[in-house]
Amino acid sequence: MMGAGPVPIPDAVAKANTVVINHLGDTMARVIHQVKTMARYVFQTRSNWVLGVAGPGSAAMEMAISNLAWPGTRVLSIVNGFFSQRMAEMAGRVGAEVTTLDVADRQIASLEAVAQAIERTRPAVVTIVHGETSNTVWNRELKEIVQLAKAAGALVVVDAVCTLSTMPLEMDAWGIDVVITGGQKGLSSIPGVSLIAFSDAAWERVRTRTAPNTHWCLDAILAENFWHNAGYHYTAPVSGVLALHEALRLVCTETLEKRFARHLRCSLALQSGVSALGLALYTPQTCRLNSVVGIGLPEGVTAREVCNHISQQYQVEIAGSFGLPIVRIGQMGEQCREHNLFRTVHALGRTMSDLGVKVDLPAGVAALEESLSAGSREARR
């Protein structure tokens, strides 16, 4: 499983996902307390307003949007791919006045363009994706974009579904108001249970809104009754929460610093291996994600052909994208292991060769090995 998510899960997470307990009992209350404590570390926040969401990362995204925006709210959505466009669509569906800042494929928004858009639209809310999984673009100037938005009085919502715990993101230090993530990517938990964190300023907007929230399950005030008061909202996905607890525990045990270093080292090695095969990396190096690597497809080869062949012949799953001429290799959490990279580069090279694309498989594997070895030597210094 080397696609863009879900990713393989550790044994401890799988075991926790088999357990069912009382969703309103004392044990569950202790689990929830620990989940929030560990999540604060992963989000790098001291905020009290950390909640779980019984749904995918998109449900957490919708919780953020539907609690902060309503008819008449001015929203600026910075759109540079499929998932950043999804936030704009969600804002439009709750009746917000949405303006999009459309960014060319494989590029990030310039600070000048963002400043001009903010000045022109005066938004109450700005939405942006930290890592656009669809085209593997890393919005590397996120911190500076948040500063521009905050200076204009806007709240900032950040999708960190594929970057949380794989790349540095500091909610409090950067001034982010809402961060959302799914469990099934960097955290290496199961799909369907997600996390969201609100700043005090964002929570105050949620608490004082006068327009009723059109979403009942995703109403953050109702969710608070379970996540902070051990009271009833709806029947919580207890097994999924226990799995998330174990996934967060493993992240905390490894530490973010070591986890970031592991992802960077493995991503650079994977990129070296792919390039040495003779294939083109899709995204410029300056804005390339660590967690998902995009590979441009040669003429005459489709993503469906590559994904089907590598799965059927070599038992490796990678992903296409949403109409783009690329395939994507995920290396998040449990994917991000050296043995997985060797198997994937070998399988990709063999697949391309089988499909009539000229590649240099020995050079690809050698480059992967050399990069990993160099990274190990650097880490020991």
TrEMBL record:
Keyword Transferase recorded: yes
Pfam families the UniProt entry points to: Aminotran_5
Aminotransferase class V domain mapped to chain residues: 21-318
Statement: the UniProt record of this protein carries the keyword NAD: no
Keyword terms: Aminotransferase, Pyridoxal phosphate, Transferase
Names of the cofactor(s): pyridoxal 5'-phosphate
GO molecular function terms attached to this record: transaminase activity
Entry superkingdom: Bacteria
Protein family: Belongs to the class-V pyridoxal-phosphate-dependent aminotransferase family.
Protein name (record): Alanine--glyoxylate aminotransferase family protein
Organism: Paraburkholderia ferrariae
